[in-house]
Amino acid sequence: MELDSPEFHEAWEKLRTAGLLQPSRLAVLPSSSLQGLAELSVRGASLPVDEMLKWLTEEKEKAIPLHQIAQAEHVDYYMLHGYRLRLEQEQAKKETRIRHAQSEVQAVRMSRQEPPAWLGPASKLRRTNANDRKAGGQADREKWAQLSLKTLTEAGWIDKPNILGDAGVARMLLRLQKGMRVRTLRMRAESLQRISRWAKIANGGKWPCATERIEDYMNDLSTHKRAGLTTFERARFAITYAEAAVGKEKEDRIGDSLSLKSTIKELMLRVAGKSSCVTTGVTKTSPR
Fold first, then answer.
1. Is residue 99 part of a domain?
2. CA-CA-CA-CA torsion sign (268, 271, 274, 277)
3. What is the DSSP annotation of 87-108?
4. What is the DSSP letter of 114?
5. Cβ-contact 254, 211 below 8 angstroms
6. 222, burial (CB in 10 Å: exposed 0-12, middle 13-18, buried 19+)
7. pLDDT tens string 149-178
8. Number of structural domains found in the chain
């Protein structure tokens, strides 16, 4: 059949206008109805009914899988939509129960009556005031900064307090705090103390002031049974922290030395390759 003929286009237009060529309708149309549909479409035209019937049969065969795919997607969409609605309803119920429980607890707290038994014994702890937390955090930061200052003074990197004076000590404490958190300041202070203890034992009491001495310290650290991957970088950070606090120029700092960084990478590789870490499955951490 000539698909480009005017007669076919006229018949096709009739079917399209009636909506009979949509896959959803053509796929469910009984095969017995195709004969009558072909006759109606070619009525008044010189197009053979058999050819039109053959074309409609082929289109129906093409429309069936398309209709099945569309139906499956439709069912999946409604199943997912229903599942999402059920989850939202369960979440809403859960939030409602939590809000009711919180409101009951708040009502009991606000009233000065005996709390019900299901609340359990009254807690002896009270909410800490925000100003108290801030003051406590600042006190801890000053505590670890003073410990670092003491270690560096014993190492000879900073003059003694009687030489520095009150203004000098305050200035050094500000440098040592340098906006760090309490946990970071504690790690820096403890790392400096470990370096100081090592220097008293293995370096004749002298603070390591050369890259080679720091590398010796790193090698000794790697033999520690609790040496972890962060041990060496933590020690390097502490050295850089001390050098920055005493005012060393960046190009003169041992902590930024490329040779020291290369040594640290090799030591980290050795620690990671220890058989004990692989066989026991225990993650090594740096010594506290």
1. no
2. negative
3. HHHHHHHHHHHHHHHHHHHHHH
4. P
5. yes
6. middle
7. 999 998 888 888 888 888 988 988 888 988
8. 2
Domain assignment of residue 101, yes or no: no
Confidence check: pLDDT of 80 > 70: yes
Q: State both tokens at 204.
A: 């004749």
Distance CA 146, CA 173 (A): 7
Full-model pTM: 0.49
Q: Cα dist. 16→11, 21, 32, 66, 68 in Å?
A: 9, 6, 20, 17, 21
Report how far residue 237's alpha carbon sits from residue 235's, in angstroms, rounded to the nearest whole number.
Answer: 5
The two three-digit tokens of residue 254, written as one number: 């041992």
Torsion over CA: 18, 20, 25, 30 (sign)? positive
Residues 232 and 179 in one domain: yes
| Domain interval for residue 172 | 134-274
CB 190 within 8 A of CB 204: no
Phi, psi of 286 (to 5 degrees): -70, 150
Question: What's the rounded Cα separation, in Å, for the pair 113 and 142?
Answer: 43
